[in-house]
Description:
The chain is an alpha/beta fold. It has 18 helices and 19 strands. A seven-stranded mixed beta sheet has the order 10-16-15-14-11-12-13. Strands 4-3-18-17 form a four-stranded antiparallel beta sheet. Helix 1 packs across helix 2 and helix 16 crosses helix 17. The protein is globular and about 65 Å long.
Amino acid sequence: MKSGNTNIDKQLEFLLRLGKIDPETAHLKITGQDPVTDSPWHIGEASAAALAAISSCVSGIWDIRKGSKQKQEVNINVAEAALSTYRCHYMKQNGYAVPLPDIDYPTVGLYPTQNNKFVFINGGYPALRRGILRILNCPDDPDAIASSLSKWKAEDIEKEMQSKGYCCAMCRSPEEWIQSEQGMALYKSVYSDGFIRAVEIEKISDGVPQPFAPLKSNSMPLSGIKVLDITHVLAGPTCGMMLAEQDAAVIRINGPQLPVILPFVMDTGHGKLNTQIDLKTQEGKDILWKLIDNGADVLTYSFRPEKLESLGFSPKTIADRLSQKGKGFIYASINCYGHTGPWKNYPGWEQLAQTVTGLAHVQGGDSAPKLLPTYPNDYITGYLAAYGILAALIRRAKEGGSYHVKVSLCTTAMWLQSFGRIDAKSLPPPKIDDSMIKRILISNESTGYGAMSYFGHPIKYSATKAHWNRPTVPIGLNKPEWPD
């Protein structure tokens, strides 16, 4: 599998090797190159590589389920791949952009501190916002927040906020990140032979091979695969959305007591059912176990790992339960700072991953740190999680067992850095032609939110064309049960 882009080819080859996927499975064509956005990072090429890995698995599963090699060509455009990491901003409802719940977010932003270093605070949810303001002892006002933070050293306020479970990160250069305790722990766990292992697929129990069911006529590669989506914001929900475009049955599960950012729910809900389950109650736990016992193949989870485990749904607990029935299971964990090191259980967001790993430092150049123009950590992490799940499903079919897929925003940020940097002389790139954006947008008059237009499918399959069979729907619309 050669795209003609050396940067993509070497990264994709390593990525497929991680998942034990034959690189010749898909007839792949990748066109274009970075820069697409005004960033020194190869956002488009990294996104294209992750999407290409997904397409290789989809094509491989289709071959397996059809019983022979199928004619499937895959086309991925680097520009479209880059734009897909900003997809939520292309969404419109009845012709208008969908606003965020709070137009002004003073508790979400970069601020200078006493020792001339910057921190990023993120109070995107009400409890986080209240906690940040309580520690800063100031009102929800940008000037007041800036004044309070100017009295703190960056490393001190980072430690204070994190110790209380709130989101704050000191801006570091890539070198400073690797030298930090968390950065070094993560680097040691994901670095291999000059590459970053962007996804980890751990076999957590043995079992007999569990072949894919034969496909019925007009079925898609993932028809019959059942996915429980217990995620939030963008990375986790994006993973489920990518599986749904090849007809996996995906149920997005929301807790009735948990806050949501509605535009993100709307834009990552394509192809999914949406239900509410209160997992703090015994009734809610019983409902989730019923969904697992009645055919679930995959569970994706992106809240703090100890939360679901404390409720009795750890990867090993689920795997052991299903192994007694002769079935394997795929559990995907998605977090911010990685699955090792002292920060592994801290909450985090896209912007925090950019801030701590050095992406924002380099993006800012000689001036203050600056966020990237898109959300590559969120979306690419979602793509990588989908790839890991698909690779694990293939392994379950061939060798049996259950698997734990692990991805994180910071690992993705380090993987993005491993693509190298774009020469400043090439920036900014030419403006994206509006016709390209219009070509990839989908219009749907009958979603659960009325008439919508939204970003479509960056992977173009010749035979199993990506398609969402269900429109995005409001939170809790569906009963917690698998479709017929």
